[in-house]
Amino acid sequence: MEIALAASQKHPAPLYTLGPLIHNPQAVEYLEQQGIRVKNKVGQITRGTVILRSHGVSSGDLEKVRKKGLKIIDATCPIVKKAHFFAKFLRRNGYFLLIVGDKDHPEVEAIRSYLDEKVEVVEQPEILSRLGPWKKLGIIAQTTQSFELFEKVVAASLYRAREVRVFNTICHATAVRQKEAVEIAKKVDCMIVAGGYNSGNTQRLSGICREVQPQTYHIETASKLNPNWLANKEKIGLTAGASTPSWIIHEVEKEIRRITDR
Amino acid sequence: MEIALAASQKHPAPLYTLGPLIHNPQAVEYLEQQGIRVKNKVGQITRGTVILRSHGVSSGDLEKVRKKGLKIIDATCPIVKKAHFFAKFLRRNGYFLLIVGDKDHPEVEAIRSYLDEKVEVVEQPEILSRLGPWKKLGIIAQTTQSFELFEKVVAASLYRAREVRVFNTICHATAVRQKEAVEIAKKVDCMIVAGGYNSGNTQRLSGICREVQPQTYHIETASKLNPNWLANKEKIGLTAGASTPSWIIHEVEKEIRRITDR
After folding, report:
1. Which residues of chain A does B139 touch, with a Cβ-Cβ cutoff of 8 Å?
2. Which of A196, A215, B27, B116 has its Cβ near the most Cβ atoms within 10 Å?
3. Cβ contact B124:A128 at 8 Å
4. How much is the pLDDT for B146?
5. What mean pLDDT comes out for the span A69-98?
6. Mind spelling out the 3-state secondary structure of chain B?
7. Alpha carbon separation from B262 to B134, B222, B230, B239 (Å, rounded)
8. Closest CA to B237 of B221, B251, B253, B255
9. Which residues in A have their CB inside 8 Å of a CB on B?
10. Which residue, among B88, B78, B176, has the nearest Cα to B140 in the 3D structure?
11. B152, B159, B167: residue with CB nearest A163
12. How does pLDDT run across B189-218, given as a tens digit for each residue?
């Protein structure tokens, strides 16, 4: 967000992001107000500056942007960049690569686009029994994946490979958030998870909380809070996805306090 | 066993093994009848031939044997040798090393003796939370360890390291035996595990079977079979440790058939 907003001050219009900068509609709306528009395809952009979003960009799109002579501002998350680095490192050193992640998440799609065919995206540990065996197996994760799935895939892979080399590419902040959210969810009577409905990590956060606290609700904004959820609840927990802007979290908190009068 | 028995034909007495060749008293007794005696310390041997046993030998003992000019016959299990190789490889490449195994098992003691201090033997995954964190972590296992523990330690280590490099050094035959024994134990009414009482892998095998079949009995020889265990049991399962000689397994099978008259 900071990189994009700074760019809107420094660079002349038009400014674009390739796909939404982050998976949060309110944040994207705010950026549009600052003159930063979303285009989903490079073909829709003819001139100006392109901001590469946090999830990274595919090799095909990057090439197109370069060919068109568009100005590039790289806002790829540095943690995502590290995942790219380790993925390439493992393939270069002869490891078959597993990416623990969602097949159609833009981050995973971008990472895959720089690699050859000896890569498999793993969404559940069960498929491991149908893959391999390998002599050398490398594993990385989508940066916002749940640690639980990562752990299960690595454990299952031990049966299928002589050597397993794992780089823990899960974003530390995300991992800590997931752990802490579960701890909170256990202690409260109702858990609110704030974040974009299209945000994979917010969905996961909400899923993880729901396992220990059935009264877990995923909302995008404060206006989606249902007072019935909070009625007669002594303790209410609140957490938010990695891409949820802090102003939205504050609004949700304020709204919870208003409804429950505390 | 074959290497040792062949040696007893080729080499003049005295012939020794450093510690019991394998963890099975009956097999060791048979070897003694063939003139191959057990000595627990190099100091007790002054001349002749030393057979290095399946578990491997510590660097200190090896040096002493060499200094004394004793003849060496290496009967170290080739799978154990591979574990030594990977342990050294990981340390040489800057990985802190975890050995999943029993601290006082001779195989683990031997492997450790060739390494420096940046090694930890892990008997339970819980201790991981008190170790590290590391940038580069290597993991191997005692060759006869349970896959379950190996899996748990690797999973727990993911929280403690940026990179985890695992060599699966568990003996394939042992791993398959454990898996199959559990499958059998689930389907029978009583499970017999034959093998040395001092054999770690037989103890583990029996422990793994007992989890799914409470009526699991670990015996060393056929004479230890209690007919009461088998009374009114429709299906009886039989498995044996890695070091259990086949003649003992056959004797146990014969005795089960005699007692149950089938």
Report:
1. none
2. A196
3. no
4. 87
5. 96
6. CHHHHHHHHHCCCCEEEECCCCCCHHHHHHHHHCCEEEECCHHHCCCCEEEECCCCCCHHHHHHHHHCCCEEEECCCHHHHHHHHHHHHHHHCCCEEEEECCCCCHHHHHHHHCCCCCEEEECCHHHHHHCCCEEEEEEEECCCCCHHHHHHHHHHHCCCEEEEEEECCCCHHHHHHHHHHHHHHHHCCEEEEECCCCCHHHHHHHHHHHHHCCCEEEECCHHHCCHHHHCCCCCEEEEECCCCCHHHHHHHHHHHHHHHCC
7. 58, 16, 12, 18
8. B253
9. 147, 150-152, 154-155, 158-159, 161-168
10. B88
11. B167
12. 999 999 999 888 899 999 999 999 999 999
Distance in angstroms (rounded) separating the CA atoms of residues B88 and B112:
10
Cα–Cα distance, B3 to B75 (Å, whole number): 6
User: Taking the CA atoms of chain B, what radius of gyration do you get in angstroms?
Assistant: 20
Question: Which residue reads 């403690």 in tokens?
Answer: B160
Mutation target for B interface from A79, A89, A154, A170: give the one with most B CBs within 10 A: A154
Q: Which residues contact B71 (CB under 8 A, 6 or more apart)?
A: B11, B48, B49, B50
Q: Which residues pair with A141 in a beta bridge?
A: A100
* Average pLDDT rounded to a whole number, residues B120-127: 95
CB A44 within 8 A of CB A65: no
Look at residue B22 in the predicted model and tell me its pLDDT.
84
Residue B136 contacts residue B161 (beta carbons within 8 Å): yes
Token pair for A93: 């050193």
Chain B residue with the nearest C-alpha to that of A169: B162
Q: What is the spatial distance between Cα B5 and Cα A164, in angstroms, rounded to a whole number? A: 38
Q: Which of A63, A107, A183, A251 is catalytic?
A: A107
B161 neighbourhood in chain A, CB within 8 Å: 168
Q: Rounded to whole angstroms, how far apart are CA atoms B125 and A98?
A: 24
Structure tokens at A13: 């219009």
Of A151, A163, A168, the CB nearest to B166: A163
Q: How many CB atoms lie within 10 A of CB A165?
A: 22
Hey, what amino acid is at A9?
Answer: Q
Is the ipTM of this structure higher than 0.85? Answer: no
Look up the pTM and report it.
0.83
Question: Is A183 labeled as catalytic in the residue annotation?
Answer: no
Q: What is the pLDDT of residues B213-236, one digit of tens each?
A: 999 999 999 999 999 999 999 999
